[in-house]
Automatic annotation (TrEMBL), chain A:
NCBIfam families reported in the protein's UniProt record: PRK11288.1
Keyword list, A-Z: ATP-binding, Cell inner membrane, Cell membrane, Membrane, Nucleotide-binding, Repeat, Sugar transport, Translocase, Transport
Keyword Ligase applies: no
Pfam families tied to this protein: ABC_tran
Keyword ATP-binding recorded: yes
Entry protein name: L-arabinose ABC transporter ATP-binding protein AraG
Molecular function (Gene Ontology), one example: ATP binding
Originating species: Duganella qianjiadongensis
Residues spanning the signal sequence: none
UniProtKB/TrEMBL annotation, chains C, D:
Signal peptide range in chain numbering: none
Compartment(s) where it occurs, according to its Swiss-Prot or TrEMBL record: Cell membrane
InterPro entries reported for this sequence: ABC_transp_permease
Main subcellular location of this protein, as a coarse class: membrane
Organism: Duganella qianjiadongensis
Name the UniProt record assigns to this protein: L-arabinose ABC transporter permease AraH
Length: 522, 304, 327, 327
């Protein structure tokens, strides 16, 4: 086995940040090489250098023993390198097939051969087990589906080196399985694979070797992943020990605080109801497209409602706008950070203060710059946001750090009564996850209702007092912490046919003991 | 003493007419030994800025064809504020209530009078061709948002009516812009709507407008023998048309003398500034109808 | 489960195929209805001469709208087309009068257009000047050049072969209209059936994604502007032939008309969206409104008002159907 | 993630603080240098009368550029400002001549501006009409109204109190210049020191994110347009006072001048970015170019060329420093 891909003393400097500092390691053909490291450690930067998007300030890159100097992404593609980027790069108005074959559409007599293009893509999608119409517009797909399209796009380049930058961060259970199968197949074909993730289970399942980064430096390369204990990985990564990352502590629950009654809207056609008690952490689980985000958007007045009402401490929350929800003490941290979260060209401080500042203005109009700065500094420290300073434009931060900034925006709300987090730990490193879980529990301890949507089943199970499962736009069951096992939750979440086959051991029961009656789907 | 410096401000520097005026003013500057500053002033705002600019350059006066005659008070005030003498050219300035501004001497044409000459010329040609007035339609290529344009075309129509033309035979063709293509499109529709006429005449604010109507008529087989278009200006566009080997529906153009306007106003202002002579309060110049037949002669008479 | 299924699950009433059909064809259908109503109510509207006249009146706008569509689709903008029309016309007329050769005249005009377009493209794609400012600057410079070379005077054309082009007809349709129709076909195919067209939409929709997929974004942009320059110059030459002279102040404000026609036809100013059929309808609506107002003798001052009202009505109608789509 | 970053790779040395300083102050510094050079080389340029004249010549553009900055920062666009200037001037002049009351005249003009602006805002924010088309439509309609109410004629003003406003000076500075300066201060504070300004930038940067963060996007947009309408009407009234008449065809093409000044000053057409200082410099550059060309008696045709060249030069220079930043 020889080193197919070699990084040699690679460095990259951005204004105020040394993103990579003399990184060297090698990845072998027929292996999956994992990259681990805290948010902002430099993983994505390394992949961008590999993909020809950035030029390194120092060091060399060797592919198959040959030194490569990529001038653009085109060169990297030509050299047989395919990258699945952390920030999805698709064209929303084009179809699945057009995106997958972007820049490489088949032609006939100089004209596009659309039937063939659609056929090729349809076959590939079917082969990897993704159920998507090749003529669907990307704009109409869920993020997870877009992510699958991106993966398909990279695979279809038939590259020798394929690098995945947190591919599972927006995938749910089913797609994740498909992806894993794919990665293993590609490995079997002898390709060189790079795999970045913050989910350790995944890394253990897929990777043969791994390299750990911290602050732009390589800490260590382990040639045999399986031999490295989990604790070691974590402490190498975050530079400290972490025992139980979920940090769950049972706490007394108050009375029902939030009542959602019969909410329906465009994508949630049947009225849905549930309630949350003061101090409760309620997990929402479901497969991709189960309607969790849509339900929360209705609750938050982000989408128009068809029916239903939301009561907070017994009083109706006006259904006019997100602003009304925020003023009532309900906040939502959205799932799609790029589209719905960040103000890309604004600073970190600005992104944190955008909502809270309304409570602390001079004369209802003028900003208090000092207080805003102090607040921003406080959260940069508390969430360990890696940024040269608070004035840095948020788009220049690493993905995970952007996510932390958006979280900070909502945690900064003082009168918080209901905190809704839609995939809050997407793209976040273990250390920071731990920070966030701790904050979730702190907030809950103060009597706040916390709703967490997550597609990471262990996370939902690890932090929730109760789990609600959704399927096809409906709440299909709920489980208190004690009964919420992986199988039980999955049994509810999977479509009926799949459920029937996958439930073997434990008999699952839909528990109706909690506050609200549960609607089981007919 | 400092050399005399005068400004020459015109409303549409791109128009050939004003280019000519400037050219003759330059000649006057050379002949008399003063400095000429030419500035285009497409609107009131730019006009005021230009006057201030002249003052900064220490000009002692300016000749102006303002973008609108109602800018009179503004011109008067700006001149007074900067202690400059001013003469208006082409268009006579009025104040807020529409009264002529007496303190500003003027040399120019009356848009309405020029228009009348157009109408009279057409009427005479209709007679000469022995057309039956009832069978003749008149296209007024209209651009009424520009006051001079309205005056000119109305003058022409009034003259036609005076010669016995039926008001019902006059068809307005409003052009969206003042270029030939817009006139073409407008005239085309007028022709579509009124296929009943055997003969056509066309008037417009300038040669380009009439040219558009003539081209539109040609597109429908209405050629030189059944079309009389008379423009205003007599510059290059008209010259091109009148010098084509075969006659077209563009019968002629009422030519106005840019030379007199450009040269004489500048000299008058120069004399006024240097204390040699006070200019006459008003001089009205006349246009001449230029056709294929009398081109050379008219040009010579107008001094171009 | 694919999108179609998911959507139908969510909104059981709206059949997605029907919906798509509505979105795709509502504009043409709307125009057909408008046309029928006008034919029935407005005297002289539905006659061969009038319809041909209408088409002739939008021939230049139509040609340039085809390339402007590409330009907008790639998230760019071109304000210089009006000036280019004037300059190409003036230059063509001058060359024609000096050399007497139609070929040379047309060649010079088109070459000028290509150079102007390429210059725009290089400024925008490689030197990264904001498209609005870059093309505003070329608009000013090219207009200035048109005035300078012609000394501000119309340049007469007496070459009959050249003049005939604007005048002659095939199957009753004037050549300019046929050229315009050809442009719609060519650019329709280019947009929908070629890599060029797909890549154009891609760089408009997400330039970064296109670049990462290996599309040569800069080169493509220069090509788009270059083609726009050539087509615009062609429109300028045709105009010169129709009005038998090259006029340096022709086509002022033309750029806004063209861009409006495109936007009316559903081309997004934010890039990534274009439909040739929509552009055609946009162009026709603009021409029809003008035509009908003149047929109805609407007062010039009220024409402004009407044009505004109709523009609004058209987009508002278009808006109704996209209600419920994701913004 | 883009070129910008790649370029910065090439200049690793650049100290970020220095760099930021350069980015922030290069435009003003550039202008100071330009001003000094012109003062030394162009006769009569550096004199009180000329500098005051220069400022006066950009007073209207300056006022409206302040609000246009907000409009562009929120990712909108307003083409109707030229027409609004004309209409407010005409209306003010008519009310003045009928009633003789300056108060009523000013009130009517400002109210008209507010209504036009609010209408734009509602069309764009609530009815979701494309801003280009919506404001193009209002541009046409308002211009039409200006012509209709005035019957196409300029409306003379003979009220001295009103006329004096445009003429009188305080500390040697004409009132219009002072009003313009006040606008820069007020809107500078509004942009940088208030929640209004921040939210404006936020909705320009990412409207969906801003909405989810509790910004009342629609309402804010209407306010921005409304304020723009009022300020524009004020500029129209001041213009009417300066030119002693309300001119229905005043300020044609004004919108492009204003937008250019903003873009020249670094306001992004893609929203989310604005600097009041940049806008001020943009406005001054536009005025200075015009002023110097007239001082130097540059031929009218060459003025087009020069204006284009200088516009380009200005953005290209600006480009140099932002090398490495995102477009
Ligand atoms: N264009 C840029 N300009 C300035 N700083 C940048 C830029 N791109 C990345 N950085 C910085 O470089 C560092 C490394 O970023 P990178 O995106 O490689 O991190 P990462 O390891 O992928 O983190 P994450 O797990 O959060 O995705 C971060 O501190 C980030 O803020
Ligand atoms: N604006 C929209 N237009 C069309 N379909 C939409 C739209 N918004 C959501 N959907 C669809 O509605 C369904 C519900 O999506 P939602 O995001 O609520 O699911 P989820 O349970 O949060 O899953 P995930 O976020 O993991 O994809 C999805 O199939 C999604 O594709
Ligand atoms: O505007 C006209 C101009 O076109 C020229 O004809 C001379 O007179 C002016 O009034
Ligand atoms: Mg990353
Ligand atoms: Mg979701």
């Amino acid at each position: 086995m020889n080193a197919y891909l070699q990084f040699d003393q690679v460095s990259k400097v951005f204004p105020g940040v040394k993103a990579l500092n003399g990184v060297s390691f090698a990845a072998h053909a027929g292996q999956v090489h994992g990259l681990l490291g805290e948010n902002g450690a430099g993983k994505s930067t390394l992949l961008k250098i590999l993909g020809g998007q950035y030029k390194p300030d120092g060091g060399r890159l060797l592919v198959n023993g040959q030194e490569c100097r990529f001038g653009s992404a085109k060169d990297a593609i030509a050299a047989g390198v395919a990258i699945i980027h952390q920030e999805l790069q698709y064209v929303p108005e084009l179809t699945v097939a057009e995106n997958v074959l972007l820049g490489r559409m088949p032609t006939r007599f100089g004209l596009l051969d659309k039937p063939r293009a659609y056929q090729i893509v349809a076959e590939k999608l079917a082969a990897i087990g993704v159920d998507l119409a090749p003529d669907a517009r990307l704009a109409d797909l869920s993020i997870a589906q877009r992510q699958m399209v991106e993966i398909c796009k990279a695979i279809m380049q038939d590259a020798q080196v394929i690098a995945f930058d947190e591919p599972t961060s927006s995938l749910s259970h089913r797609e994740t399985e498909i992806l894993f199968r794919l990665v293993k197949e590609l490995r079997a074909e002898g390709r060189t694979l790079i795999y970045i993730s913050h989910r350790l289970e995944e890394l253990y399942e897929l990777c043969d070797a791994c390299t750990i980064f911290r602050d732009g430096r390589k800490i260590v390369t382990h040639d045999v992943m399986a031999e490295v204990p989990r604790e070691r990985l974590i402490s190498d990564m975050v530079g400290r020990e972490l025992s139980d990352i979920y940090d769950y502590r049972a706490r007394p629950l108050g009375k029902e605080r939030l009542q959602v009654q019969g909410l329906s809207g465009q994508h949630i056609s049947q009225p849905q109801s549930f309630s949350v008690r003061a101090g409760e952490v309620l997990g929402f689980f479901g497969l991709v497209g189960a309607g969790r985000s849509e339900l929360m958007r209705l609750l938050y007045n982000a989408d128009a409602r068809k029916s239903g009402s939301v009561l907070l401490d017994g009083a109706v929350v006006p259904a006019s706008s997100p602003a009304a929800a925020i003023n009532a003490g309900i906040v939502l941290c959205p799932e799609d950070r790029k589209e719905q979260g960040i103000l890309a060209t604004a600073s970190v401080a600005e992104n944190i203060n955008i909502s809270v500042r309304r409570l602390d203005l001079l004369g209802g109009l003028f900003l208090r710059h000092q207080r805003e700065a102090a607040l921003a500094e406080q959260f940069i420290a508390r969430l360990r946001i890696k940024t040269p300073n608070r004035q840095q434009e948020i788009r220049l931060l690493s993905g995970g750090n952007q996510q932390k900034v958006i979280l900070a925006r909502w945690l900064a709300e003082p009168g918080l009564k209901v905190l809704i987090l839609d995939e809050p730990t997407r793209g976040i490193d273990v250390g920071a996850k731990n920070d966030i879980y701790r904050i979730i529990h702190e907030v809950a301890e103060q009597g706040c209702c916390v709703i967490v949507i997550s597609s990471e089943l262990p996370e939902v199970l690890g932090i929730s007092d109760r789990v609600i499962v959704m399927r096809e736009g409906q709440i299909c069951g709920e489980l208190p912490r004690a009964q919420a096992s992986e199988t039980a939750v999955l049994a509810l979440a999977l479509p009926d046919t799949a459920a029937a086959s996958s439930i073997t051991a434990e008999p699952t029961e839909t528990i109706e003991s909690s506050a609200l009656p549960i609607r089981s789907i007919a | 003493a400092d050399a005399v410096k005068i400004g020459f401000l015109v409303k549409q520097a791109e128009e050939p007419w004003f280019q000519d005026e400037w050219r003759y003013a330059e000649q006057a500057a050379k002949d008399k030994g003063f400095v000429l500053v030419k500035i285009g002033v497409p609107n009131g705002e730019k006009m005021i800025a230009a006057i201030d600019n002249l003052a900064a350059q220490k000009a002692q006066g300016f000749v102006i064809c303002a973008p609108d005659v109602k800018l009179g008070t503004a011109v008067e005030r700006a001149a007074r504020r900067n202690n400059m003498k001013v003469i208006s050219v082409d268009d006579r300035l009025v104040d807020g209530s529409g009264k002529l501004i007496a303190s500003i001497p003027h040399m120019g044409i009356s848009g309405y009078a020029i228009g009348k000459q157009v109408g009279e010329g057409i009427a005479a040609e209709i007679k000469a061709r022995k057309w039956n007035m009832a069978e003749v339609g008149a296209i007024r290529v209209a651009y009424d948002q520009l006051p001079t344009a309205r005056e000119r075309t109305m003058g022409a129509i009034d003259a036609l009516k005076a010669a016995g033309f039926a008001a019902a035979n006059v068809i307005d063709a409003p052009q969206a812009k003042t270029d030939t293509e817009s006139a073409f499109n407008a005239a085309n529709i007028a022709l579509t709507k009124n296929f009943r006429f055997k003969y056509w005449v066309a008037v417009g604010l300038n040669d380009e407008a009439v040219l558009g109507a003539v081209r539109a008529a040609e597109g429908r087989g209405i050629k030189a023998d059944s079309m009389i278009g008379v423009g205003i200006g007599g510059a290059k566009a008209a010259e091109n048309e009148l010098n084509k080997p075969a006659a077209t529906g563009f019968f002629g153009s009422v030519m106005i003398s840019a030379k007199e306007h450009g040269y004489q106003t500048s000299v008058n202002l120069f004399n006024w500034i240097t204390g040699k002579a006070v200019p006459p309060a008003e001089v009205q110049t006349r246009g001449m109808l230029m056709t294929r037949a009398n081109q050379a002669e008219v040009r010579k008479q107008m001094g171009q | 489960m694919n999108v179609a299924q998911m959507n139908s699950a969510a909104t059981p009433a709206a059949n997605p195929r029907q919906r798509q059909w509505l979105v795709d064809y509502s504009m043409p259908l709307g125009y057909v209805v408008l046309f029928a109503v006008l034919s029935a109510t407005v005297e002289n509207f539905f006659s061969l001469t009038n319809v041909v006249g209408l088409m002739l009146s939008v021939a230049q706008i139509g040609m340039v709208a085809c390339t402007m569509m590409l330009c907008l689709a790639s998230r760019d903008f071109d304000l210089s087309v009006g000036s280019t029309i004037a300059f190409a016309g003036v230059l063509g007329a001058m060359v024609l009068e000096h050399t007497g050769s139609v070929l040379l005249a047309v060649g010079a005009g088109l070459a000028a257009g290509a150079i102007i377009g390429a210059a725009n493209g290089v400024l925008i794609a490689y030197l990264r000047v904001n498209a609005l400012i870059a093309t505003l600057a070329t608009m000013l410079m090219v207009r200035g050049l048109a005035f300078i070379v012609s000394k501000g005077q119309a340049v007469g054309i007496s070459n009959d072969a050249f003049i005939d082009f604007g005048d002659s007809r095939i199957f009753g349709l004037p050549l300019p209209v046929l050229v315009c129709a050809a442009c719609f076909v060519v650019f329709g195919v280019l947009l929908n059936q070629t890599i060029f067209g797909r890549n154009t939409l891609a760089i408009g929709g997400n330039p970064e994604a296109a670049r990462l997929a290996g599309v040569q974004v800069e080169r493509l942009r220069v090509w788009i502007f270059l083609i726009q320059g050539v087509v615009t110059a062609m429109a300028g030459l045709i105009l010169a032939s129709r009005i038998t002279s090259g006029q340096p102040n022709a086509a002022q404000g033309f750029e806004l008309d063209v861009i409006s026609a495109c936007v009316l036809g559903g081309v997004s100013l934010l890039g990534g969206k274009a439909r040739i059929f929509g552009v055609l309808i946009g162009v026709l609506i603009m021409g029809t409104v003008e035509n009908v107002m003149n047929l109805l003798d609407v007062d010039a001052f009220y024409q402004y008002l009407m044009r505004g009202v109709i523009l609004l009505a058209a987009v508002l109608l278009d808006q109704l159907k996209t209600r419920g789509e994701r913004r």
